[in-house]
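In response to reviewer comment 3 from the previous cycle, which asked for concrete evidence that the modeling workflow produces usable outputs, we include below a single protein chain processed end to end. The sequence was submitted unchanged, and the resulting structure tokens are shown without manual editing.
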Amino acid sequence: MENIQIEIINTSRNPLPSYATEGSAGMDIRANLEEPVILNPLERQLIPTGLFIALPGQMEAQVRPRSGLATKQGITCLNTPGTIDSDYRGEIKVLLINLSNEAQQINNNDRIAQLVFARVEKASLILVQQLNITERGSGGFGHTGKQ
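The workflow returned the following structure tokens.
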């Protein structure tokens, strides 16, 4: 696995994002809050992290939910995975939603999401009149499922 260097500014009092284990795909990122945020059922809020990054070209950072937060508190990320483009220099913020039936509290330094770094390719679209035929064809959602 290649180790890519990413420039980061951390304006929070929290530690830098890090991998929880050697095999982790995502780095945990934390809430940067002056006071706790209460998320009521089905409420969503943009949570700041105090982090700013400069990605190399042909890279993206994907903001993804943390499974523990979803399982234990019913909190997940909207717009998942959220993409941070290589030319974005603003603060990383995480759009959280509470899918539980109870109000949930987010505190400063809580691990709220994870960042996964990935390479991206640019595509050129070619306008055609017909696509090649495949076994699946135009079958949609669930088309290859149970018979």
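Residues 67-73 form the longest helix (7 residues). We consider this sufficient to address the reviewer's concern, and the full set will be provided in the supplementary archive.
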